[in-house]
Amino acid sequence: xxxxxxxxxxxxxxxxxxxxxxxxxxxxxxxxxxxxxxxxxxxxxxxxxxxxxxxxxxxxxxxxxxxxxxxxxxxxxxxxxxxxxxxxxxxxxxxxxxxxxxxxxxxxxxxxxxxxxxxxxxxxxxxxxxxxxxxxxxxxxxxxxxxxxxxxxxxxxxxxxxxxxxxxxxxxxxxxxxxxxxxxxxxxxxxxxxxxxxxxxxxxxxxxxxxxxxxxxxxxxxxxxxxxxxxxxxxxxxxxxxxxxxxxxxxxxxxxxxxxxxxxxxxxxxxxxxxxxxxxxxxxxxxxxxxxxxxxxxxxxxxxxxxxxxxxxxxxxxxxxxxxxxxxxxxxxxxxxxxxxxxxxxxxxxxxxxxxxxxxxxxxxxxxxxxxxxxxxxxxxxxxxxxxxxxxxxxxxxxxxxxxxxxxxxxxxxxxxxxxxxxxxxxxxxxxxxxxxxxxxxxxxxxxxxxxxxxxxxxxxxxxxxxxxxxxxxxxxxxxxxxxxxxxxxxxxxxxxxxxxxxxxxxxxxxxxxxxxxxxxxxxxxxxxxxxxxxxxxxxxxxxxxxxxxxxxxxxxxxxxxxxxxxxxxxxxxxxxxxxxxxxxxxxxxxxxxxxxxxxxxxxxxxxxxxxxxxxxxxxxxxxxxx
Length: 627
Hints:
By secondary structure, the protein is α/β, with parallel strands linked by helices. It is built from 24 helices and 14 strands.
C-alpha cells in the first residue's frame, strides 16, 4: 500500500523506512494521505472520508499507531480508535549469556517487531558476552558482542524510540567470567566477586565502562541477584563472618559510585535484600523482615527490579509490590516468557503468571515492566518462541483488559504468524499427567529426549500415560502449523521432528525393560529395528535444531547442545550393540536392564501436577559429569 504521511515527519521517517517491508507499505507523495500529529495524550487513530489521522505522544507510540491504523484500514475502511498506555516503559530482556548470543541482524529483526507492537525498552543480558578491552579472557570464545555490534543495535533501536539498556552482573552469576586465571585475586566463590578487594572494583569499572559505552541510555542494570554464598567463600577466610546485609550494601555503594562516576543511573535485581531478610533465605517469603538500617543503607536513586514469574495469584504480586514500595526505592517489574522450561516453551505458565502480574502492576501504578527471556541450561528453546508472550505484554501495555481473540489478531498483524499454532507447542510439555497450564513446569519433552534408553531414569514417571500416542497426535498439528506460518517454517519443522522422535522414544525404555524381563527375544528384535530407525530420526532432529540455531545465533554455544546430540547418538549406538550381543548370546545379561526402575524425583521431589523438571546433567545419567 502506498501512503503519504502529512505533517512533521523528520523524527519518524527513518523508522518508517526501516519498517516498510514489515508493514507492506511504500511512502509516496501520491499515496493515501495520513496526517500525523505529535502531542501530549493517548494514541488516537482514525480514518474517514478518504483521509487518515494519527495522534501520538512518544516516538514509539507512532510505530504502534501506524500498525494499528493499517490493521484497521485493511479490515474495515472507516474507524476511530484510542489507546492509552498503562506503562511508561514496557519491553523485553534477552538472555544472551547462557550460550545463545543472538546475531545482530536478528536483534534488529526483533526490534522491528517490538516497534510495531509498541514496546520501548530492550535489555541484552550479558554476563560475559561483551568485550572488556582490559580483560581479553572475558567472554573468550563465548560469542561476545563487540562495541561496534552493540552500538549498531542501539542506533537501530533509537530510530524507533526504543531504549536499549546495558544489563550486566557486578557481584554473582559470573562463573564464566571468573573461571580464568586472571580472576584469581577477585574471586570469592566460583561465581561471586570478592567484595572489598581493590582489584575487584578495577574490574567492575572496566565492565561498566565497556558495557555502557555503546549505548545512548544513561541507565544500567548492574545485576546483584542470587549471590547465595555472599561472604561465605574466600571473603570469610579473609575477614571472618560479617553481617551479609552489610557486605551487600558495602559492595553496592562502591558499584553505584562507579556507575555515577560514568554518569549512569543503576538498577538492581531486588532478591538479595529479601533473601537476607528471610529466615529461610527465600525471595518470596511472606514473613520477610528487612531491618530498617538495611533499608536506609540502600543507595539512593537505585531502582529495584522485582522479578517474579512463579505466581498465578494477582494478590501475591500486589503484596510483594507493596513490600518493594516499603523499601522506598522506585520499582520495576520483570516477568517471564518461560522460554527456559526445557526444549519447548511453556506458554501455559507464562500466560497465567503474566496476566496476574500485569493486572497487579496496573492497579498499583508501576510504570516500568518487562518480560525476561532466559535461556537456562543450554538455551535449547529458540528465543523466537517467546513472541506470543511479548505480544501479550504489548497488548496489556495499551489495554486495561484483553481477549484472546484480540491478542491473536494483533499477533498475526505484528508477526505474520497464527497464535493458535504457536500455542500448540505448549502440548510438548503439557502432556498426560500434567495439570492445566503446566504451572509447575513439567518438561517431559526435554527429559524424554535426552534420557538414556538403557537406564530409563524417567520411565516410572510416565508409565501408563500413553506418551507415544500423545506425541503421535501432535505431529500433524505442528506440521499443519508449518504450512500456515511461512515466517516460522524452521521453528515448526524442528518441533514437528521433536514430536516425531518422542512418538517413538518416549516409552521405548519401558518396552525394552518389559521384553528383557520376559526374555522375549522376538519383541527385543523388533525393538532393535525401531532403535535403528530412531537413530536416523534423532539425526534429522539434530539437523533441524542446528538449522534453527544458526539462523538465529552466533555459532559459539551451539557446541553445548551438539555435545548432547552426540551423546544421545553414541548411547543409542551402544544400546543397539548391547541388545545385539544379548540376542546373539555373546552376553547373558544386560546389567542396565536388570536394575529395578524407580521414579525420578530429584532433590525436591515431583511437584503436584508435574512429571518432573530437570536439567540435562540430571537427565542423561545418574552419574556425575564433574568427576
